[in-house]
Design brief:
This protein is an alpha/beta fold. It is built from 16 helices and 13 strands. It has two domains: 193 residues, NAD(P)-binding Rossmann-like Domain (Rossmann fold, 3-Layer(aba) Sandwich), CATH 3.40.50; 136 residues, Rossmann fold. It has an eight-stranded mixed beta sheet with strand order 3-2-1-4-5-6-7-8, with helices on both faces. It starts with a strand and ends in an 8-residue tail after the last strand. The structure holds nicotinamide-adenine-dinucleotide. The site of nicotinamide-adenine-dinucleotide (NAD) has 29 residues, from helix 4.
Length: 422
């Protein structure tokens, strides 16, 4: 089949590469010229294991290429961003642009698939009405379905193949046609459903995680006041065969868990109470960590230097979208008047940064572990003790052992551990 994929990011590009290495001809479309130029040379501009090799193979075979403009195809797959606006409602501008872009090339019998995470009703009502305006009857003239991803960055190529997924068609025929298409590379089960059900399903998967992380964050804050270690509570509670408490942290980031629950709240704000509260609890964590940092450094006189390890939204990825650490740094710099320096070699970002932990930690009054990247696991603790102005660390991820620091004369603080309660 000839497949045209609109949006070549973390989802569109691996999907394009999978179709192209499983018997299809794929044209990738993007608005970013750098993405197109790189792809046509068999290269990628994001970090994802084995993706460049797969793209390279497909480009060399002639089954994958990229351009700015779509062409006539059998199937069109929309993988563009769906961010939230400042008012916490979905920004569907990119989805609309993507759909309008394919209209001139659309023919009867074509398949249209939305992969972008979207508020309930987007496929059937929003895309459906654009297609109707253009003279196509969705479900009769063209097949239309929502077919979301559940991949984990860092394992995208494996999970694209192995995970089960749900296809939500606007009618049964659309769902069956799309299922058949994805069966060319998906080995997991493909379940057939209706479009809005599948959209709600995708949103609830991430909402489930957001609400559970909020519960863990609440537990961490409670434990700090009780003289209890939340991480021990979680460890032992999870020995219960039907309990799975999540982990606390400095907030929730990424463009999925930190965003998707709002798409539900947007539709029924008066009913989505738990979802709304969880979102606000998690969004409040950078501020909570900021207050902790103020407390840990309250005896320092003059300008306080804080060294922050990690800025991405999760470990070992190059993705900073919605990262709570960005908000934390902003609070420290703007509200707290701190001097901050950040170490994160996975990403390029504006602001005060160092490549080396020890250069960054020199003369610091506090070292904060914000993201548990692998390279921060083993540190030269005696060296840190010597170079820091105050030998104090604050671990927001339960990544380090207290003993390792304390036996070297350093102070160790852990988010959610009440032994250091103020
Ligand atoms: N990354 C994930 O793990 C993941 C998982 C499940 C769902 N999703 C959803 O998939 C969608 C895409 O996410 P992503 O992570 O791939 O985003 P991304 O930002 O990595 O990639 C999107 C790409 O679309 C391009 N683009 C924007 N507007 C365009 C347009 N009008 N025409 C053509 N290209 C355009 C951008 O230049 C970019 O390359 C989002 O809705 C996201 O919520 C992402």
């Amino acid at each position: 089949m000839n497949i045209c994929i609109i949006g070549l990011g973390y989802i569109g590009l691996p999907t394009a590469a999978m179709f192209a290495t499983h018997g299809h001809n794929v044209l990738g479309i993007d608005v970013n010229q750098k993405v197109i130029d790189a792809l046509n040379k068999g290269k990628i501009i994001i970090e994802e294991p084995n993706l460049e090799e797969t793209v390279n193979t497909a480009v060399k075979n002639g089954s994958l290429r990229a351009a700015m403009e779509p062409e006539e195809s059998d199937a069109f797959i929309i993988c563009v961003p769906t961010p939230i606006k400042p008012d916490k409602t979905a920004d569907l501008t990119y989805v609309e642009e993507g759909i309008r872009k394919i209209l001139p090339y659309l023919k009867k019998g074509n398949i249209i698939i939305l992969e972008s995470t979207s508020p309930p009703g987007t496929t059937r009502d929003f895309i459906g009405s654009i297609l109707k305006e253009a003279g196509f009857v969705p479900g009769e003239d063209v097949y239309l379905a929502y077919c979301p991803e559940r991949v984990l960055p860092g394992r995208i190529l494996i999970e694209l193949k192995e995970n089960s997924r749900v296809v939500g068609g606007i009618n049964e025929e659309s769902a069956h046609v799309v299922k058949k298409l994805y069966e060319s590379f998906v080995r997991g089960e493909i379940y057939i459903s209706e479009a809005t059900t599948a959209e709600m399903c995708k949103l609830m998967e991430n909402t489930y995680r957001d609400v559970n992380i909020a519960l863990a964050n609440e537990l961490a804050m409670l434990c700090e006041k009780m003289g209890v270690n939340a991480w021990d509570v979680i460890k032992y509670a999870n020995k219960h065969p039907r309990v799975n408490l999540h982990m606390p942290g400095p907030g929730v980031g990424g463009h999925c868990i930190a965003v998707d629950p709002w798409f539900i709240v947007e539709k029924q704000p008066e009913r989505a109470k738990i979802i709304n509260l969880a979102r606000n609890t998690n969004d409040g964590m950078p501020h909570y960590v900021f207050e902790k940092i103020k407390d840990l450094t309250k005896n320092v006189e003059g300008k306080i230097k804080v060294c922050i390890l990690g800025i991405t939204y999760k470990p070992n990825v190059d993705d900073m979208r919605e990262s709570p650490v960005i908000e934390l740094i902003h609070l420290l710099n703007e509200q707290g008047g701190f001097e901050t320096v950040v170490v994160d070699n996975h990403v390029n970002f504006e602001g005060s940064k160092e490549r080396d932990v020890y250069t960054a930690a020199k003369d610091a009054h506090l070292l904060v572990l914000a993201v548990n990247h692998n390279e921060f696991k083993e540190l030269d603790i005696p060296r840190l003790k010597n170079i820091m102005k105050c030998p104090v660390v604050f671990d927001t991820r339960n990544y380090w052992a207290a003993d390792a620091f304390e036996k070297n004369g350093m102070e160790y603080h852990l988010l959610g551990w009440g032994r250091n309660k103020s």
